[in-house]
Amino acid sequence: MGLYSHPIVVQLKIKPELQDKAEPLQKCILSGFFANVARLHPSGEYRSLRDDHPLYIHPTSVLACEEPPQWVVFNEVVQTNKDYMRDVTVIDPEWLHELAAHFYHFGTERELAAKRARLA
C-alpha cells in the first residue's frame, strides 16, 4: 500500500472588521512571492506584472466566487486550457513599493523612459 500526498487547500475569507489584522499576513505572503503579482485587466482576465502573461483565478478558489480583486499575489500557476493561479491572496499595490521596490520600477511611462535613457 503506497502513501499518497494530497494538497491541503485552506481558504480564508476575512471579515471586513478583521481586515486590519490580516494585513501583516498578507504583507508576509507578498514579501515571499513578490514576483508573482497579477493585476485585473479590463478584459476580465489577470495579467502578471512581471511579463504581462494572461492568468485566471482557479475555479476552486474562494476568490473565484466573489467580485474579482484588482491586485493579487499567487503561489503557483496550474496550466490546463487556461493558466490558473492557485493560492491567491488579495494585496494592496502600495505594498509593492514598500516590500519589493528592488524588483519593480515605479513611475509614469514618461518617468520610466527618462530613467532608462539616463542609464543607457
TrEMBL record:
Keywords linked to the UniProt accession: ATP-binding, Helicase, Hydrolase, Nucleotide-binding
Domain called DEAD-box helicase OB fold: residue spans: 25-102
InterPro entries in the record: DEAD-box_helicase_OB_fold
GO molecular function: helicase activity
Lineage: superkingdom: Eukaryota
Protein name from the UniProt record: Pre-mRNA-splicing factor ATP-dependent RNA helicase dhx15
Origin species: Plakobranchus ocellatus
Upper lineage: Eukaryota, Metazoa, Spiralia, Lophotrochozoa, Mollusca
